[in-house]
Amino acid sequence: MTTVQEVELVMLFLIEEDFADYPDLIEVAQRWLRNDEIKTKLVLAHNDSLKDFEGLEEEGPSIEENISYFIEHPFLLGDTISMVGIKEFAEMIGWDKARLSTKFSRQQSGKKVRPRLPEPVQILASTPLWTKAQVSNFKRRLKSESK
Fold this sequence. Notes:
There is one protein chain. Helix content is 59%, strand content 7%. By secondary structure, it is mainly alpha-helical. A 3-stranded antiparallel sheet has the order 1-3-2. Helix 1 (4-18) packs antiparallel against helix 2 (23-33), helix 1 crosses helix 4 (63-72) and helix 3 crosses helix 4 (63-72). The longest helix has 16 residues, at 36-51. The protein is elongated, with a radius of gyration of 17 Å. 22% of the residues are buried.
């Protein structure tokens, strides 16, 4: 069984090693290190995922894989602070809101757009929501394609 202390050590490792180039993921992990409720949810989620593999020859996901997955998808644990709408998305990538909104509408209507926007994790009252990690990854793709 995984403990809160193990979760904390893994999160510190991920911050130092795996997330070095991803400031938005570091922000989530650092915030979660100060949140006992989230750390408990991570313990429960990891232990539950291992139960799915009991009695099977295949090993379940590592604690690093599980925690990394949840940090990249924080809304799954109820963390909505890491969510952004069209306005924030546009600001983060240096576009105006109208440009991003038009691109999103074209993509949703089935038109080809380059590069494709990430799929929103949620749409509330016709407002798409993405995680900050999705926006950071998209911004990196934009930079690499413009070189």
